[in-house]
């Protein structure tokens, strides 16, 4: 089978699509690829095919999608991602686009050459690394939709890139660090060239005027680095001193300012040695370590930024005048919208017409679509896979579930776990000890070799700077948090990872946590002359008037009866059942106690209810809240790991005993109130237990808030999720095991980081104090130590 000349995919048998390119007829797999190739050839860009290093993207873009690009010309849509510059006849607009389909540098060349021919386009730059394109154009001569169509005509798709607030701050911070790094790097190289000339005086005689000249040049080159590049260290030191704390920025600033002032003194008065090379290299290496730390911290915010880009920009709103395309952010609560098959939902809402399978992987991590029907809740960012839906908007985009996830993610690392607090305290004590040692070293050298006292002390301050120690915990926790978010566990408080490694008991609610929370009808047994189908029809007719979960189990059960029965004079009996008349006959359906059944006629297992008429028992129905498929494996895995397992439930029925027996838990505590659950957990805590609580309901909220660490099911109540320390986005209990495994790895990584950073400082301190370690070597060693810690921590994000 031939491969498509444009995209490289197999050409279907019998395909007649082809195009002559440079005298050779090349096969095409579809009309889209043929149209793209024709556009490329007509524009005189055939050299694209000569220089590309990878196939192009499949060139199918349906006419409806091309027409929809005109929505991007609306002012209310553009205001989020288009910036204006210039005035009057020089008015210009600028946009950053995300480009799909870029495979190599030839793609960027092709796009730039093709779009440059558009009248009114003034600037275009395509970045193949970030898959983004920056464009400037004249809005009076060229529409944004025409630019996007220009991408589509040659087989690429471009969309406005909307920068999340956090991402914008990150980009600003990265820019700042890059400028500081560039200045420090270039400056240190120039200063090192001068230093080579100064060091030559050790081997050959150099005239004094040349020595003075090189010192002054070094001073001029070092001053911008000290003022601009090193500014973050001064700001950090000043902040910590104002708060009465000692941070690593204090020791860094002392070392930098001391070395610079001493070197400047030596330059101005032409006496003593200068260490401008050590200063500039120190700043460069330290900034490099900070920059890598920034990259590691960025991992935790990528998930929320990616979520923000999953919501479509346009929506189809239905009103009295028909259907209209509007910006999704303009939707209000109560608006009715249409969502076609294959498109992404623009808002949270309830289905009012139609049913379809929705892919909710962006919320839960599960790739299998879920069937949604009239009355079901659906969420922005999920994908409608197979049928059109009409949805009534329930929340504005700012209050949607996706926005809540972003807010939770923003706060995931706000609370420092005990191990992080310990690291901060250790760093502060270490700095205090370091300053005392530095003072002692200076005193010793001042009386033995005064000319070396300052430089040896400087080497001590630089070499033992606790950068790696301060980075040991936050970089590891950040990487682990990003890993958990990507795998369907959203941390709301940072101490969860620490508790997971120390817990010796897992406490779980039953209904909605270990079970699905949906009562279903398991079996029907006829006890008189009526058939099972007839008994089920009578039961359904009565239960149609009730909203009890048991009633819903009958409504979802199909029946063989062609005609549904109609009930009258229906009366619910709270706590017992329901009664009414069907075709003049009085029926009751409810508990055995209400129907006064003898013990021999009741079921020994499961949740049983009974149907009776005025004189006899007609049928028995067995219902059950089915176990989650992963519940048994979870309990067994935790028991194998040495944790005690407890079911803590408000259910006092025999089903609680059946679930406990089937799962093999160590302890069952049933029939307890919300206060009783919290009291149980506090009693366990008094006995020395460290517990993890998993629940989903309003009655679990107090115990979730009071546990050492707690997880709420994504399908649980809002109160439970707000009380929990973490949320299982996929309602998948097996993710708890993954979280514990990752927590153990995180603890190991943090211990490795501590061991390395403390071991390095203990090794290098005597070398620096004895004068064997020059300041510039100390700076390089300190920065290398920080890089090792950051790199080790980033392994957790794999």
From TrEMBL:
Domain HMA residue range list: 93-159
UniProt entry keywords in alphabetical sequence: ATP-binding, Cell membrane, Ion transport, Magnesium, Membrane, Metal-binding, Nucleotide-binding, Phosphoprotein, Translocase, Transmembrane, Transmembrane helix, Transport
Coiled-coil residue spans: none
Positions of transmembrane segments: 181-200, 212-234, 246-268, 274-292, 430-447, 453-477, 754-770
InterPro entries in the cross-refs: ATPase-cat-bd, ATPase_P-typ_cyto_dom_N, ATPase_P-typ_P_site, ATPase_P-typ_TM_dom_sf, ATPase_P-typ_transduc_dom_A_sf, ATPase_P-type_domA, HAD-like_sf, HAD_sf
Lineage top rank: taxon: Bacteria
Localization annotation: Cell membrane
Membrane topology label: Multi-pass membrane protein
PANTHER family linked: ATP7, ISOFORM B, CATION-TRANSPORTING P-TYPE ATPASE-RELATED
Family under the similarity heading: Belongs to the cation transport ATPase (P-type) (TC 3.A.3) family. Type IB subfamily.
Protein name (Swiss-Prot/TrEMBL): Cadmium-translocating P-type ATPase
Organism, scientific name: Aeromonas popoffii
